[in-house]
Amino acid sequence: MNKRIVGNNGPEVSSIGLGCMGMSDLYGNADRSESIATIHEALEKGVTLFDTGDFYGVGHNELLLREALQGTKRENAFIAVKTGVLRSPDGGWIGMNNSPQAIKNNLAYTLQRLGVDYIDLYQPARVDPNVPIEETIGAMADMVKAGYVKQIGLSEANAATIRKAHAVHPISWLQIEYSLFSRGIEAEILPTLRELGISLSAYGVLSRGLLSGKWSKDRQGQIDFRSFSPRFMGENLEKNLALVEALRGIAEEKQTTVAQLAIAWVLSQGEDIIPLIGARKRTHLEDAFGALELKLNSEDLAKIEAAVPAVEVAGTRYAKEQMAMLGVE
């Protein structure tokens, strides 16, 4: 397993990370034993980066990760935690709170659920419009000084917010969606990260499964998060699946899969980019590990970009209301 550095002079982590959200939330029921086996498989293959959130499954995901990491040396698991999103007892979404009090309170519960003394990287899941980012990062900086947090990150923040946050305390990474189907960050956000020496933690590298090469029109209407995603609806889905088929032609030439090609493309965009692979089953990891062996040259990259022009992707990555909350594209 190759390594990549978090931030300017931060720790090394595996070149891909395991995103654990789907084991607890948003994509339907997951088998607990298979989820734990998937985390164990990742560890065995050299994955050291595990991404979770205190609101994933209303704490379920942190407890699951704790169980799976039992017996693992603490220094062999880089745990990144998102916070700030509020949930109701029925699992509903009821806003966000990134106030200093909430940040410190949430961290206390996270440490207990994970059974650890510190979090490797702590980040607000979204930018709270009611709390200045300086106050949120200031509270996290207090937790760094106290030894409860090692690194601070951001998620779904625009360039101006990144600069404000970085002025309070060094930001180690920005977590945001980035894939062949989601390239909006290339205009302003990615150059800002590189100017400041901040890594990119790229999630959604398979665009919620569209770039897996396994999605079809027959699955339209599947009841999970994707039911509300414009990219999976009607004509948008047809257009996007046509792009996937164009990518499949290149994958077949390279004797690889569509998913491996899509992951390898993200990996090839810079050593400062660390893709997160969302997996609920061990079989979901196969494409990720295969992508690590796939080397793309300039000719390959030109073919891929010609087959999947960013302007041809149909539909936004979230519904209109959620996109408005992000404020990054």
UniProtKB/TrEMBL annotation:
Keywords: Oxidoreductase
Keyword tRNA-binding: no
Stretches assigned to the NADP-dependent oxidoreductase domain: 16-307
Pfam families for this protein: Aldo_ket_red (PF00248)
Protein name: Aryl-alcohol dehydrogenase-like predicted oxidoreductase
Taxonomic source organism: Fictibacillus barbaricus
Lineage: Bacteria, Bacillati, Bacillota, Bacilli, Bacillales
